[in-house]
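Write out the 3D structure for:
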Amino acid sequence: MPIDNSSPLTYHGHHKLASSSSCLNTQTAKPPCFLSSPSMAAFIFLLISLLTLTGDVLSEHTTTTTSLYHSPKTIFSNYDNMLHSFKIFLYPPPPSSTDAPLFTTTQESNFYQSLLRSPFVTDDPTHAHLFFLPFPSSTSTRNLARLIRNIRVTFPFWNRTLGADHFYLSSAGVDSSSDRNVVELKKNSVQISCFPASSGLFIPHKDVTLPPVHSFQSIPSVNATPSFLGYMKLTDHQIPVTLTTLIEEITDHPDFTVEYDPPASKKAKFCLFVYGGSDMTWMVEAMASRCVPVVITDRPIQDLPLMDVIDWSKMAVFVGPGGGAKGLKRVLEGIGEGEYEEMMESGVAATRHLGWNAEAQPHDAFHMVIYQLWLRRHTIRYARWVEQ
């Protein structure tokens, strides 16, 4: 995700079709006979007006619902193909001596339970596009190597692609190892971790992240007169040293409000987040509250949820810390009202794809994560093992 240190995002307005008309030269040609009737001419004029109005409405609807996607022309047809075709084979989970749940985080549990109840699961591995490896995130590297070794020996599917058509859940991510089995898992298989991913344990373009679980139940009404420009909720998360000065400046600036664990209602145009140093999990809640996220980061972000599907630059602002609080204010005030409204509405629309449900619903977080796996079903990677 590109970082803008000093200038606002560029807004590209949507162009509506402009109707045009041409007049017949009545001095050189006579109008068709059916136009000679006043009632018929009035009818045709009314029909053209209705068609023009309908076209504008459809164009506006299409703009509103597709502007947040990377590939608006293909996503829904691909999604429908996924619903009818995608099959996943689940390996049996490793034996456990306790009754503890297989996954401990809410995101992992939601995804796993939804997967078990979904029509994507097949008992016939020959029909599967991908293979799921269920194991707890707390599994040690040694036990993980043993697990993959058993899969390799017991089933024929791992060795066909060295695990490239396999995926697994790991909230924090699998660490590096010198063991062949863990190397192939880490380098080839798709890792699904919780957002934000741990630094160094996420491979862009291969791995995906689970959207955070939000607490909002409904979308609040629009606040027509925000009380301040930017709002930041700080928690006990460690602030990166490179950003501490900026946080202090924001805290002292009259146009920004910084609070610890405040009430859910936020009366600001923008909600500020420090990537890697604040609670990013409530970003979806901020978007649903019509507060445009502003992510302050000193490095590119490559683990945003659903990055293959939605264009985060259409609903969030990404800035570097170099300009300080004054530079941040200049960027935010440089965003026009039209662009701001577009970003706000895109953010609200995106929460449909970022929200979890007790029973999975069409286009929700579960289905969109599955869609990202569907996009990876033909991607083959090999991490050949070389003896040391």
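The chain has eleven helices and ten strands.
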